[in-house]
């Protein structure tokens, strides 16, 4: 029995790395964005929105018709995915500003708050190694009805990322937590669609109003 186990293990390590790993489920979405870039190259020096479904579902053209925004959000991704695909989704566009929203899924899948902050630091370092003047705006993980039981972990992650942002003038942190709560200190239902996670039109209108001053800074 042990011989068979070690033989299987040896065969596994003998395989090339590409055969050992399952294909990344996000690659097809990244490839679709790259194809769109080839068909109609976005301008350099614009604003890039990147992150999970909150970004991917945002109609940035309607929210910010006067600004050039490249939306590269992918539904279901985590901060580590933003780091992995930073070249294809962010750096190639040489943006003046990156707006990042990710962390919901990280907390959901059991990552500790400190890991969220580590991944944010990795993302910021990857951007600034290539684009040292590019600003990064991190939107704090939102309080949502469906993930209210995780609010303590969410707030801890936000607190640590905020502290990181306060140490670098190129980083900024925007927190919607208090604005999204009602008199009962719970998430306002009208700011979410029926799933209790994703933003409604009113939710996006709130975010748009608060973000606009950051996006229009020279």
Distance between the termini: 67 Å
Give the CATH architecture. 3-Layer(aba) Sandwich
Q: What is the global morphology? A: globular
Cross-sheet strand order for the largest sheet: 2-1-3-4-5
Largest sheet: 5 strands, parallel
Instruction: Write the element-wise H/E pattern from the N-terminal end onward.
Output: HHHEHHEHHEHHEHEH
- Point out poorly predicted stretches: 1-22
- β content, as a range? 5-15%
Helix content: 40-55%
Descriptive overview:
- By secondary structure, the chain is α/β, with parallel strands linked by helices.
- Helix content is 46%, strand content 11%.
- It has a single domain (27-215), classed as SGNH hydrolase (Rossmann fold, 3-Layer(aba) Sandwich).
- The chain is built from 11 helices and 5 strands.
- Strand 4, helix 10 and strand 5 form a beta-alpha-beta unit.
- Helix 9 (113-130) runs parallel beside helix 10 (151-165).
- The longest helix is centred in the middle third of the chain and has 18 residues, at 113-130.
- The relative contact order is 0.11.
- Residues 1-22 have low confidence and may be disordered.
Overview features:
single chain, 218 residues, alpha/beta, five-stranded parallel β-sheet, 11 helices, globular
In short:
This protein has 11 helices and 5 strands.
Structural topology:
Elements: H1 2-14, H2 17-20, H3 27-39, E1 47-51, H4 53-56, H5 60-63, E2 69-73, H6 79-84, H7 86-89, E3 97-101, H8 104-108, H9 113-130, E4 135-139, H10 151-165, E5 171-174, H11 201-215
Parallel strand pairs: 1-2, 1-3, 3-4, 4-5
Helix pairs in contact: 9-10
